[in-house]
# Entry
Amino acid sequence: MRETRLDPSQLIYPLFICPGKGLRREIGSMPGVFNLSVDEAVKEAEEAAQLGLGGLLLFGLPAGKDDQASGAYDDDGIVQTALRALKASSASKKLVLIADVCLCEYTSHGHCGVVSRTGEEYAIENDSSVEILARTAASLARAGADIVAPSDMMDGRVGQMRQTLDEEGLEQTPILSYASKFASAFYGPFREAADSAPQFGDRRSYQMDGANLREAMREIELDLGEGADMILMKPAMPYLDVIRAARDRFDVPIGAYQVSGEYSMLKAAFAKGWLEPERAMLESLIGIRRAGADFIVTYFAKDAAQVL
# Structure
């Protein structure tokens, strides 16, 4: 009689790829999550495939950063290199490889777009950022990404990506848009994992106000109009009502990202013995599915798959 079901194939596992070889460095604020060199990421992918997970979401930690995020669109960049290695592995036959498209990991200032500064004042240059993001999406698709996933929240980036991908003969590469990404305190641990904390200011000028449900629907509608094939809601737990509203309104695949802060606070409660790990983990995931998410990006993906 159960109305909502959870299956490993509905879970997407994020990986943080770093330069080097044989590296598996645990992230302090995210117990059980690691920065991985490419060879270790391939091993992780093979385990994920054996567990029946749906796919991987790839983030990169480049060897160097600059103001123009040149590492993001470098055809020999860290995620591009990882994609080629993953595509050559047996795991690629069972996993969808999703490449996050953003600039914050690659910029020296940690913002998701190009920044112009005058004294103490700064502004995000939307249009020049969009050009770089589209170039990055094409580079990742050429390297083997099955899906590109813009998470920057710049205006118009989906339309520019779709045009650029089509012009390069990559018209079959879908776009998974983080169409509804809120400025959230729950991203804190991720910024350690991806070394992407802003060096000044914050991201509230381009990420969404957490109080605005109707605006979220407008943002989703705009991205779908520009050519997004599917959408991702982020974070999940504090915004279950947004997931439900989108599910009721839009007939496209919808995913939700159970973000780093959601994972870390549960892991902290588990370590203290305050919550039963297996039950609390699965309850958090089934709640996201019940709200309307077709798939979930979660750091619990492997643990949940083993239980399921």
